[in-house]
Known about the structure:
By secondary structure, this protein is mainly alpha-helical. The protein has 2 domains: 1-46, no CATH class; 58-118, no CATH class. The protein has 3 helices and 2 strands; from the N terminus they run E-E-H-H-H. The chain has a two-stranded antiparallel sheet with strand order 1-2. Strand 1 and strand 2 form a beta hairpin.
Amino acid sequence: MIPTTGRILETCLYGRPVVPAARYCSKVHSAAPVHLMSKFDIPIAPAKNQTMNVSLPEQMEEFVRQKVAAGDYETASEVVREGLRLLKQRDDLWKAEVRSKIELGMDSIRAGRTIPAQQVKAEMAAFKKKWKKNRSLK
């Protein structure tokens, strides 16, 4: 059993105990790793070579089968790994773009190029109103 100051809530995908950070006792050492449930918990990497089953909608499953049948990939796992690699690549690119935009904004602030708060509020209110209107059309 994993030592905690509270009870173990559930078992995660890898069959290991899941303990909220507030109940994790960092003073007690254990050989068994503890997997946690949210970004506020203490992260611990899962064991290597674990099997994960994933449910796919019928259309995605058919797409995976077509990729394997066409010879583009040898297994369904290869198709999924490639998809996840591309998703990670997209996420990394998005993060780099956001960091770049933040840096540009900070440079503008340092250079004294700012917009009055009232103007920002008015522009945001107009944007939100337009966004809500467009969203209701879909």
